[in-house]
Amino acid sequence: MLNRQLFRGSLVALALFTQIGPAVAQSAPTGQATLRPATLERSNVVEQEEIRAADAGPSAYEAIRRLRPEYLTRRATPQPGDPEEGYPVVYLDGVRLGGPETLKNIPLDTITRIRFLRASEAAQWLGRTHRGGVIAVSTIR
Predict the structure, then answer these.
(1) For 13-25, what is each residue's pLDDT tens digit?
(2) What is the pTM of this model?
(3) Which of 7, 36, 69, 101 is found 20 to 30 A from 75 (Cα to Cα)?
(4) Residue 118 and residue 76 in contact, taking contact as beta carbons nearer than 8 Å
């Protein structure tokens, strides 16, 4: 019975290692092991340098579509009376603009930072009406 349990434990360890072993090798600095996935989670902030380096197009919408397309996806089930229908709400320098399509009106050369706030983060700052999250765009003032 004990041998069978050890064998099962070895199989589980082997299965886990074959799944995360390559990730450990790719993401660990020299001499350190980590269980972090090979593809690091993208940041919720896009800085001006990254925007310029990507040569993403003329507007904020094209930049986000190219650099962080997940920002533009529907994140909540639409509710009656929800003008953004579960999509993130766009704020420009603290002023509410509307849904993701409004990003097409923001010229890329004026942007210093684009930040995505999940619904829970947005609720702390802006109230609970942002179920799809918030795309906060900061510009040169």
Answers:
(1) 444 334 434 433 3
(2) 0.66
(3) 36
(4) no
